[in-house]
Write a structure and sequence with these properties.
2 helices, single chain, Elongation Factor Tu (Ef-tu), domain 3, alpha+beta, 157 residues, eight-stranded antiparallel beta sheet
């Protein structure tokens, strides 16, 4: 009988060994991302009355700034195109008339407004006593002049 008991135990041991399964790696299942559907708007809004289309009205275009008013006894002769700060020299593009040494100028701009007489004048790095319309002239100035400042020639004091 002892032999029978051993065989039963060995069968149970074998059956236990067979019952074990080899280790299997578990993989995580990928989750599906489901997009939410947009909520529908209530039907009452879609049934609202539509307004008639507005007529487009032409907007007024920006007008050029008004030309500066010339004072009596002055005539506009040009504008400042450049200013050399370290030399105190303004480059003036003459539009009309002539400019001579000794003439009195009135330079007026957004932040500058002063009068002075012409003491030193150059055209193409050469000292001149007279300049005509169409020339660019370098003038030594007493105060700071800025680009786009208007230059007037004072005809009467």
């Amino acid at each position: 009988m002892a032999a029978k008991k051993k065989s039963k135990k060995s069968k149970k041991a074998k059956s236990r060994v067979k019952a074990k399964k080899p280790a299997v790696k578990k993989t995580k299942a990928k989750k599906k991302v489901v997009a939410k559907k947009a909520a529908k708007k209530p039907a009452a809004k879609s049934a609202a009355k539509k307004k008639p289309a507005k007529k487009r009205v032409a907007k007024p275009t920006m007008k050029a700034p008004a030309a500066p008013v010339t004072l009596p006894g002055e005539e506009r002769i040009g504008i400042v195109t450049h200013y050399f700060n370290h030399l105190s020299v303004a480059i003036v593009q003459l539009e009309t008339g002539t400019l001579r040494s000794g003439d009195t100028l009135h330079i007026k701009g957004h932040t500058s407004d002063f009068r002075q007489s012409v003491a030193s004048m150059e055209v193409d790095h050469a000292h001149v006593d007279e300049a005509r319309a169409g020339q660019s002239v370098g003038l030594r100035v007493n105060e700071h002049a800025r680009e786009h400042d208007v230059v007037y020639k004072v005809t009467r004091p």
